[in-house]
Write a structure and sequence with these properties.
The protein is α/β, with parallel strands linked by helices and about 400 residues long. It has 14 helices and eight strands. Helix 6 (about 95-110) crosses helix 13 (about 340-350), helix 9 (about 190-215) packs parallel to helix 11 and helix 11 (about 270-295) crosses helix 14 (about 380-395). The protein binds NADP nicotinamide-adenine-dinucleotide phosphate. Phototransformation of protochlorophyllide (Pchlide) to chlorophyllide (Chlide). Its EC number is 1.3.1.33.
């Protein structure tokens, strides 16, 4: 049963390879691709170091305003200045797993200052230190997505820092596959959808204004998706399947009085997580339709691969946690390390070739990115609009 659950979390490419009985994905190719990517990162770092050597004011996270106020004598053009300043990326849930690995990958380039938006301040600080991030490359700020008040407080606090906002990554998530009863956010919404979708929905809506103001060459908002919400894949077809139905449970408040599930059905923790991921992917597309043309912001989602070792599975049964990583590593070969997944998300944050808006990115076995197809429900524009309108009411924006 644990293995069946494990299989449900396979990436699409792996799932189809598994189905065809071919397990010989080229590890060598993957390793080589990763190697050349990290080499690129390293050479970026060298060039930034070189810039710091030539212009000491470039160090310790100086903001664009500072650089502009006292230009060096061999003054760069306005376009060059834009590309020279460090970008600022807010990453929710950067205290572990994918979020931490992405923060580290971005910091290592020397081109980004990462705001680690986390509910546990001390854990985030320790995590940043444990992966060797240097102080000047990150700031930890408190954010509890299970409280809409905390989301608003975070936005206020962020604005007080007067930092520009260039990229927002909505990454944090909770997964409660074994919960028998629902638990709830501060405002009384079922916890998985309340945190993963509603908390991020409010955050992204409020910070959109700040993103709009960014003068960074490419401003982006990324909402992490998942294969488990996509029923056009083998993994997405393992019960309980994601299904938002007509959103009657969400419309009635998702507070356990009528229902704790978006479709109005019986509570199921694994389904609640998958439903929340469908919401994430629908929200990204609705943001794209409403705001991409007007603001120039790139909206994207992704499935980073199966990162079997992260804290996401902390509430799963011990047998699952024991078997899942080796099952992914040696049987399906679908395993993606946290480091590799972090590099993938970092690509979506900053790689010029991944700047297209409205895309759901995935990676093949050679670690090359491609535009993936979402399931019928996860790409349903009518449902996305309805989800937007109901969510607006729940978070107090309408
Ligand atoms: N692991 C996979 O195989 C996989 C596959 C597809 C997609 N994903 C997606 O990847 C993203 C990251 O997951 P992960 O695997 O890296 O799991 P993870 O290690 O458990 O990371 C989740 C992060 O979310 C944070 N978080 C949880 N509740 C929060 C709240 N109320 N407010 C603020 N932060 C909160 C956690 O904070 P604490 O450290 O304080 O707990 C943690 O930093 C999720 O969106 C997940 O759906 C993961």
């Amino acid at each position: 049963m644990a293995l069946q659950a494990a299989y449900s979390l396979l990436p699409s490419t792996t799932a189809s390879i598994y189905k065809e009985g071919r397990f010989s994905a080229s590890l060598k190719e993957t390793t080589l691709t990763s190697f050349s990517f990290s080499n690129n990162l390293r050479s970026d770092k060298i060039s930034i170091k070189e810039q710091r050597r030539q212009n000491p004011r470039f160090s310790t996270g100086i903001r664009a305003q500072t650089v502009t106020a006292t230009p060096p004598s061999n003054e760069a053009s306005p376009e060059q200045k834009k590309t020279q300043r460090k970008g600022t990326a807010v990453i929710t849930g950067a205290s572990s797993g994918l979020g931490l690995a992405t923060a580290k990958a971005l910091a290592d380039t020397g081109k980004w200052h990462v705001i680690m938006a986390c509910r546990n301040f001390l854990k985030a600080e320790k995590a940043a230190k444990s992966v060797g991030m240097s102080k000047e490359d990150y700031t930890v700020m408190h954010l509890d997505l299970a409280s809409l008040e905390s989301v608003k407080q975070f936005v206020d606090n962020y604005r007080r820092t007067e930092r520009p906002l260039d990229v927002l990554v909505c990454n944090a998530a909770v997964y409660q596959p074994t919960a028998k009863e629902p638990s709830f956010t501060a405002e009384g919404f079922e916890l998985s959808v309340g945190t993963n979708h509603l908390g991020h929905f409010l955050l992204s809506r409020l910070l959109l204004d700040d993103l709009k103001k960014s003068d960074y060459p490419s401003k982006r908002m990324i909402i992490v998706g998942s294969i488990t919400g996509n029923t056009n894949t083998l993994a997405g077809n393992v019960p309980p399947k994601a299904n938002l139905g007509d959103l009657r449970g969400l419309a009635s408040g998702l507070n356990g009085q009528n229902s704790s599930m978006i479709d109005g059905g019986e509570y199921d923790g694994a389904k609640a997580y998958k439903d929340s991921k469908v919401c994430n992917m629908l929200t990204m597309q609705e943001l794209h339709r409403r705001y991409h043309e007007e603001t120039g912001v790139t909206f994207a989602s992704l499935y980073p691969g199966c990162i079997a070792t992260t804290g996401l599975f902390r509430e799963h049964v011990p047998l699952f946690r024991l078997l899942f990583p080796p099952f992914q590593k040696y049987i399906t070969k679908g395993y993606v390390s946290e480091e590799e997944a972090g590099k993938r998300l970092a690509q979506v944050v900053s790689d010029p070739s991944l700047g297209k808006s409205g895309v759901y990115w995935s990676w093949n076995n050679n670690s090359s990115s491609f535009e993936n197809q979402l399931s019928k429900e996860a790409s349903d524009a009518e449902k996305a609009k309805k989800l937007w309108e109901v969510s607006e009411k729940l978070v107090g924006l309408a």
